[in-house]
Amino acid sequence: MRPALHFAHANSYPAGCYRKLLSRLDDAFDVHAIERIGHDPRYPVSDNWPHLVDEMEQAIAAVGRPVIGVGHSLGGALTVMVALRRPDLFRGLVILDSPLMSPWRSRGLWAAKRLGRIEAITPAGVTLRRRDAFESTDAMQAYFAAKRPFSRFDPDVLADYARLGSEPSDGGVRLAFRPEIEYRVYCTLPHVWSRLARPLAMPAVYVVGQQTDVIKPADLRFIRRRLGMQVEPAPGSHLFPLEYPLATADLVTRLAAGW
């Protein structure tokens, strides 16, 4: 029997956008995923994401056996939170450029929330200005192909973003991951990592994009020292799983070998 693997996507990119990566992983693992985190009204987005952690825990527990937890950005942070609470659900973790923030960055995040400045230090403000409606999936793909960070995506991933990351609306299509949910996720980024952190009870690797603009050296020190995670670099930006899906899948397979 193939090992079970639960994959959790980044904010605004439904699991379908990772089709190429997940198809490669499916060669070695029994792959499970939540299609759109934060869209189930039973698990609303709130400060520090407690209900999203509940949503993730329920999804992983439903697999029925311990999983290799793999998550990108939002999904990786939630996966770590579940692993800290329910280590029995996991064989190991591979976390892909997720916002596990050092104490000083967490304090800054808390202050930004209190002062109403969260849009200045996260992509939240941009989210609500992003175009949402398109005549067709082809039009959506052409529009985003000319914009960063999408212009860096693997061509198949960009096509999947248009095809699988959209839904019918008013004779055309719109973003399936709703901008108002994406906005709330950014505005409620966890600032509680220093309180939650302790060494993880399973093998755990943190993969950082070599050109990331999300993770800082202090965060990596925190991840190593407080969470006990091994840190591995990968080519690409914060969105490297969407830029290099096959290489990312192969890296996950290598890191999880023997778990």
From TrEMBL:
Protein keywords: Hydrolase
InterPro entries: AB_hydrolase_1, AB_hydrolase_fold, Carboxylesterase_BioH
SUPFAM superfamilies with a match to the protein in the record: alpha/beta-Hydrolases
Pfam families in the cross-refs: Abhydrolase_6
GO MF terms, alphabetically ordered: hydrolase activity
Entries under PANTHER family matching the protein: HYDROLASE ALPHA/BETA FOLD FAMILY, PEROXISOMAL MEMBRANE PROTEIN LPX1
UniProt name for this protein: Putative hydrolase
